[in-house]
Amino acid sequence: MPVIASALTLFLALVLAIAAAHKLAERTRLAAATAGLLRLAPAIAAPVTMAAAAVEFAAALALFFPASRVAGALLAALVWAGYGAALIAARRRGDGGLDCGCDFGRRRSGIGRFAIARPLALALAALALIPLSPAGGGGIDVQSVFAALAFVALLFAAGEIAHLPATRRSAAR
After folding, report:
1. For 79-118, where are the E strands, in sequence order?
2. pTM score
3. 39 lies in some domain
4. How many angstroms separate the first and last alpha carbons of the chain?
5. Domain hosting residue 132, numbered range
6. Picking from 11-20, 97-106, 125-134, which range would have the lowest pLDDT averaged per residue?
7. Measured between alpha carbons, how far is residue 86 from residues 13, 29, 43, 45, 151 in Å?
8. What is the mean pLDDT of residues 4-12?
9. What percent of the chain has pLDDT over 90?
10. Which end of the chain is least crowded, N or C, by CB within 10 Å?
11. CB 118 within 8 A of CB 139
């Protein structure tokens, strides 16, 4: 498997696995986020959140095996596109101040452009993986592991940068 496809596969699988683990670690907060985003009762939002974690984990696992890689990529793309659509819908109906559960910590800024762009970009990356995946599979090399870890770190860093307060230029300048 080319290094690009291998690194992209690992990157997407890591993001999915981290998202699933995040839902398990912060069940209460993320069930409340799910309730707000989808306008669900809290009693329904908790199992929906756990189901989302299970789907994310299944997609991550499917990406590791050549025979199921395309299905995993499609499942990942559906999950992220659905999440992006839920964020867009919440922002359009005036719920943009909600904690979307997008980050490890609760953000005061609510649903911003980065929060919406991130899952949509990840969905596109998952779809881009499909033609890159060879039918016969392929191995994972050390370079791909480090590249995937670097991209995960960059994704988290971009999230932190996106939440920095905007600076205002003084009118006197």
Report:
1. none
2. 0.84
3. yes
4. 54
5. 3-162
6. 97-106
7. 22, 17, 19, 14, 25
8. 91
9. 50
10. C
11. no
Residue 159 has pLDDT above 90, yes or no: no
Contact 126, 134 (CB under 8 A): no
Residue 77 and residue 126 in contact, taking contact as beta carbons nearer than 8 Å: yes
pLDDT in tens, 37-75: 899 999 999 999 999 999 999 999 999 888 899 999 999
Q: How far apart are CA 64 and CA 38, in angstroms?
A: 30
pLDDT at residue 108 in the model: 65
Q: Count of domains in the chain?
A: 1
Amino acid at 115: A
Residue 11 lies in a domain: yes
- 27-34: long-range contacts at Cβ-Cβ below 8 A with a sequence spacing of 24 or more? 29/99, 29/101, 29/106, 30/101, 32/99, 33/98, 33/99, 33/100, 33/101, 34/101
Nearest residue to 29 (alpha-carbon basis) of 42, 38, 18, 12: 42
